[in-house]
Structures are given as structure tokens and as C-alpha cells.
Amino acid sequence: MPTVSEESGRRNLRMPNDDEMFAVVTDMLGGGRVRLQCNDGKERMGRIPGRMRFRTWINEGDVVLIEPWDWQDEKADIEWRYKGQDADQLRREGHID
């Protein structure tokens, strides 16, 4: 759960590791799959893992944290979904377009 800094109102959010990046969901494909526009400029097919499938609803326009597959670069697993105000903070700070 993100914490809020008292003086600035900035929330401490989960940031990507070395093998993760930000992406925006552009299309829902069905079957736990989504189309993603990634921060590196590539378009990938994302997979919603079972641990998130029924607990976290993902919609078009959501900002997510993904981990591209090592063996197939055009696909990725979704690791985290940012809520609206968290996504707005990431945009303000210049992490995503």
C-alpha cells in the first residue's frame, strides 16, 4: 500500500525493477489477455496472471507495471496495476507519457 508524505502529499509508489517497465492498456482481448503500449515504444500482448485475474480489475487506459518475457519480447506479464491518482502522479513526475 502506498504511503503518503505529510509535507508534499506525494505517495511512495511501486517503481519498476531492472526487468520491469510501465505500460498502458490499449485493448482488452479476452481470455486474460490485453494489448499494451509500453514505455519503450513497443506494443506487446500482456497476460493477466491468475493471482490478479479476479482480485484486480484491469480496464482500457489503466497504467500497469509489466515484465516482458525473456524468450518472446512481444509478450509480457502484468505485475501491478496503478489506481487513477497513482497514475496521475506518475504522469506528473514524467515516468510515463
UniProtKB/TrEMBL annotation:
<dbReference type="Pfam" id="PF01176">
    <property type="entry name" value="eIF-1a"/>
</dbReference>
<dbReference type="InterPro" id="IPR006196">
    <property type="entry name" value="RNA-binding_domain_S1_IF1"/>
</dbReference>
<dbReference type="GO" id="GO:0003743">
    <property type="term" value="F:translation initiation factor activity"/>
</dbReference>
<keyword id="KW-0396">Initiation factor</keyword>
<dbReference type="InterPro" id="IPR001253">
    <property type="entry name" value="TIF_eIF-1A"/>
</dbReference>
<comment type="function">
    <text>Seems to be required for maximal rate of protein biosynthesis. Enhances ribosome dissociation into subunits and stabilizes the binding of the initiator Met-tRNA(I) to 40 S ribosomal subunits.</text>
</comment>
<dbReference type="InterPro" id="IPR012340">
    <property type="entry name" value="NA-bd_OB-fold"/>
</dbReference>
<protein>
    <recommendedName>
        <fullName>Translation initiation factor 1A</fullName>
    </recommendedName>
</protein>
<keyword id="KW-0648">Protein biosynthesis</keyword>
<feature type="domain" description="S1-like">
    <location>
        <begin position="9"/>
        <end position="83"/>
    </location>
</feature>
<comment type="similarity">
    <text>Belongs to the eIF-1A family.</text>
</comment>
<dbReference type="InterPro" id="IPR018104">
    <property type="entry name" value="TIF_eIF-1A_CS"/>
</dbReference>
<dbReference type="GO" id="GO:0003723">
    <property type="term" value="F:RNA binding"/>
</dbReference>
